[in-house]
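so i finally got all the pieces together for this one. its two components total, 759 residues if u count the protein bits. some of the lines might not be protein, just check the labels. i wanna see the whole assembly predicted at once instead of chain by chain like last time, that was a mess tbh
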Amino acid sequence: MTTTAARPAAKPHAPQPRSAFMDYLTTTDHKKIGVMYLYFSFFAFLVGGVLALLVRAQLTQADGAVFSDADTYNQLFTMHATSMLFFFIIPIWAGFGNYIVPLQIGALDMAFPRINALSFWLLPAGFITVFAGYLTGGGPAEAGWTEYPTITTGHYAGANGHGTDLWIVGILLVGISSLLGAINFLVTVFKMRAPGMTMFRMPMFTWNIIVTSMLSTLALPVLTSALIMLFIDRNYGGSFFDPALGGNAVLYQNLFWFYSHPAVYIMILPAFGLVSEVLPVFSRKPLFGYKAFVLATAGIGALGFSVWAHHMFTTGAVLLPFFSFMTALIAVPTGVKFFNWIATMFNGKITFETPMLWCLGFLSMFLIGGINGMFSAQPPIDYAIHDTYWIVAHIHYVLFGGSVFGVYGAFYFWYPKITGRFLSEKIGKIQFWMTFVGFNLAFFPMHILGLAGMPRRIASYAADPQWELLNQVSTVGAFLIGISTLPFLYNVAVSLRGGKQASADPWRANSLEWATSSPPPVHNFDSLPPIRSERPVFDARLDREAQARLKTGPGGAAPAGAS
Amino acid sequence: MTTATTEEIAVGGRPEGMSMPLLGMVLFIASEVMFFGGLFAAYFNIRAQAPEWPPAGLEHLHASVPGFFTVLLLLSSVTMQMAVFAIRRGNVRALTRWTAITIVLGVVFLCGQVYDYSTLDFTIRDGVYGSTFYTLTGFHGAHVFGGVMYLVIVLIRSMTGQFTARHHAAVEGASMYWHFVDVVWVALFLTLYVLK
């Protein structure tokens, strides 16, 4: 006979009351992680914005008297671009993707929730590492966000400090974050779609996140290899990029742009997706040419791997006709998208809520960015405008006029879903017009400056009254953009408590994230509507309204517009 | 109107095809291919523009000793696959045994790498030849080390009975990763030691 002590009664599993802080610190919920991404990335946007304003302050006068030390100026524009590209635009789309993609495909969470949390937490780690450069004697990285050797391999004293090493390590951390996030998105979309959600019924935002993730998975490791070689050159006496010892400085540029050109699509494609979500909703029409859209997106992704050397035309070390041709070819799928966007709005019942305003701003500004990019794609023209302010104008029309307008559009569109309340339309419109005017004031003059030959990345310039005037206009515009973030921050803060309450489907939209409550429950969905097209929520609403009409009978109330 | 309930959504994932962890591993390996692609691209770019390779004063690497360790590493791919076959039949003891043998072979390979380094008369500081050689083999070695760590975890989980014929995604993933690391080594060995 054996005697055993009575098994202790299982304690009822009481949910431990945790502080909101601990809750977010330890969460693996894709929605909370997504919100943390949004907070962090917007913080990086503000940091990068302040750095940009300091850059603009310096350029107000030709003699560049604000920061007499050119190194300080170099650090400013380097850290501005680093913060904006690596810590704002790329991760903020990962943030929206995190929140929205599982909802759009009817999944409960991301495929690997703990890896998802790791992806997020690597971001602040990378940010702190990169910005820790300010604590070192030599200051942070200052060779531009491209960190080209031989500037960064000891041939230029300014980049000898450990700031550049910290930059490399920080960007490697962000790279791991981005790679893990991309794999997570791909597995989520391939394996966790709800019953009925076939690939060709997925919302366009999800499609764009897929192509973006493919680009990250395949292109980012090449940047990792380049940065590691740069680190070895700088710290362990390697000579990959040192021509004096048999290395090749242009090799770094090839490897760097093999990632960083697709990275431009990583920054813009999710904005394309957002626009493709918003335009049908506020035009009250289905998206024109859904399959063409999917193919165009995939086409941009595929072509993105064969255009990188258009950043290097003037090195004389790349095949100009090939890369010029491939770059021009990108205009074809992009043109398909523009055609489809315009056709989506054509004859629609267009209303101008704030998300729609941002998307229309996106269409007009990104078009300019695409056209001025086509000039740079032609080698004869590029030889004249390479590394002038024309390029600065181009990148800002694409990344601010494109991506950032898309980001604001996404905030206004999905804020009701995330918080259950609307952002104020009135403040939103004020903010839009401030940003729109400020943006064009800041960046349009740069076209003229570039054609006049003003080089980029210089702390002072020739004392030409016209150049000075154009730079001052640009600075005024930049500060207007800076001020325009204040109404947005106020709007976000106030609407969190006092905003108009939003129903599950406040915009009468199409995709599955609108099938659940606002904000969604922890498990995302209590039930899903049947998914028989790429607009399941529209189908369900149509069905519901048809049923209601049947009940009221022929003599009943006039039917509400169903579309 | 028919609606899917929470339970249906929960099981509504797509069981057909590859499991989620394996798909994640395949994508991770795809990214690793591109990482080594970057390193190989650098190697061939630098080698192609060098006036002579290896540079004057250095003789071509001897392939015999590393060749022996290459055979050992290839053998470890076989033992790893035996481990997978074992657990697919539900044989946990054989899984433990084959995993342990694979770990030993991996560690022997790493020791061989260290021995090989000790016999070379150039360092990472000696021009592009040294930089490329030590970076490529070093990063491969780091991947073997990572693979050994992964296999140690698989071994511990195997010994504590966490794998069954149905549930052993980690073993399948480890085996995929291990084969990948082996293939990279074959490419590296042929490029660095054999190609003249």
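The two ends of chain A are 76 Å apart (CA to CA).
Chain A touches chain B through 56 residues (CB under 8 Å).
anyway lmk what u think
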